[in-house]
Amino acid sequence: YLVGFVVSKIVGLKHYSGTLSGGERPSLVREPLNPFDTNAIAVHNSRGRQVGHIEGRTAKVLAPLLDSLLVANTHVLVPGSRFSKAGNNFYQLPCQIHLFARPAAAAIVREAIDDSGLVLIDPNHIEFALSQSAIVQEQTKKSDRDVDKLFARVG
What we know:
The protein is of the alpha+beta class. The protein has a single domain (2-124), classed as 2-Layer Sandwich (Alpha-Beta Plaits). 32% of the residues lie in helices and 24% in strands. It has helices spanning 56-67, 106-116, 126-130, 133-154; strands spanning 2-11, 27-30, 41-44, 50-54, 73-77, 92-100. A six-stranded antiparallel β-sheet has the order 2-3-4-1-6-5, sandwiched between helices. Strand 3 (41-44) and strand 4 form a beta hairpin. The longest helix has 22 residues, at 133-154. The radius of gyration is 16 Å and the shape is globular. It starts with a strand and ends with a helix. The relative contact order is 0.22.
């Protein structure tokens, strides 16, 4: 179930050799043993190379939700143009982090995000429709239809 998305930043880009291309889907990897921050969430490109971390303010909220499996999955969107470390701001990159939870956990996830001061843009919000998030929602619906078709064939 798509709960919504939060806007954050990928930071520390200059410290890693991984790069991101526009439209690429980076993944999030929890790093609870990170010596600098036990809430650290690394960002890896589609080739598995680390490109940075989610900024601390957001990681502090998301880490316990990921660790407890209240957030079952994430989907990260980065700006559509190719990102280059030779660009103007190679220290950070804005991103949208889409949060997926089981329906029973959705209210808990919403409450945790709201209590933290982060802004959760849910699928009914006007900004959701104006962002690239509508693509995520449509891909999720298509994926659900594919699974439904598979079960219909098996059943």
